[in-house]
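Record pair follows.
FIRST:
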Amino acid sequence: MDGRLPSHMLVSALLRRMNDSGGMGMVLAKGDAQGGGILVIAIGPDRTARVLERGLDLDGRTVLIDSTPANDILSYWRRRRARDPDLWVIELDGAAAERFTAETILQH
């Protein structure tokens, strides 16, 4: 066991933090409760959307990767989800969306 929290708990924490801060968070696609990857669509106050997910750097450390496509985020996450049905896709809309994502996903 690697000590990480199950995916459903991380998703729940992200949604709660976003909603408690006055923003909005919602699940667009539900993945595997225990070990599914989490793809976050973070919408900032300027209405710009970024796609963020947990990954590893060259030294094997957990980092937050910006995998925002050049166009059409909807098509991008649907293609990813078609290849990986265990993938969670959530949308966080608010000023602290990226910060909450980094704090929650990288801490656990």
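SECOND:
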Amino acid sequence: MLVPFCSIIPPYMLQRLAQQDSPEFSSAAGAARKALGHVESFQAARSQAVPALPPGLRDVKPGPVKRAIYDAGGDETLPGNLVRKEGGTATGDAAADEAYDGLGATHRLYAEAFGRDSVDGRGLKLDATVHFGKLYDNAFWNGSQMVFGDGDGEVFERFTKSVSVIGHELAHGVTQYSAGLAYRNQAGALNESMSDVFGSLVEQYVKNQSAAQASWLIGEGLFTPKVQGRALRSMKAPGTAYDDDVLGKDPQPDSMDSYVRTSADNGGVHINSGIPNRAFYLVAEALGGYAWDAPGRIWYETLTNGSLPASATFSVFARATVRAAGALFGQESPEHDAVGAAWETVKVKV
């Protein structure tokens, strides 16, 4: 299996932005065109194989986080110059220090909430490069490290500003080293959804927020004040994250009644992820308390227990979460009932 190129900004958003001819967004349009070209070239060149999951990996005791932050200085050569290593003092560069903190927060969630030793379960060193490219409109996981652009300054701010973005992209690594969900159609939408789920959980864990207190927004803070929108996506209410003259309206459906059938975006991986996203939110809402507890444990168990096929559909995944809820909490438990009810609400057959 090849490692997919997983970036936070959906191609349909970049395509919309690239078509802008207003002088007010000239830098953003040029940046979007360049980011689109980078996505296409990166996807065409993918050749890295996913390492096999060793037996008993989930029983490894989590070790300390190991981080390294590099500065590309506006170039596109990775990793760049080392500016902060594990235990080093803050650099004073907001992007570098936000990346360092976000990597640590993500490692802490997996270690403390799920007993996982870093992204790969074997203590993988967490590397990140900031200041990638000129006005680069994206952040991505390339199969081995995180990469962050600075944004164009007209539509997007720097991509380290949102800890949910950092958590989202690192979660692609967790999926890569566990279920290896294919990055196309419903399996791809599940791949994206798992990253939104754990990206949101990282943010909630850092802020010590309950499910009721959380915003459930992915990428909050990325937009400049020129944009009419709160974030890239809303797990609580898919389709409502933004409604803007330049970017258009958030296209995510919130149930199978509005499922989008398309060949674009690898079969709608960033669009249809709204459906399983909302299912997770509904479970968290129904159970209350901290979402990384019962809901997070159920989703993490489903992703990592080895039973999920790489080509899983929404229904296959839904049934797996119901089984995981029963195994963890009992067939007659509120957790089991909440999971089944959530999938019924979003019209996914279990």
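COMMENT: Confidence is low (pLDDT under 50) at residues 44-56.
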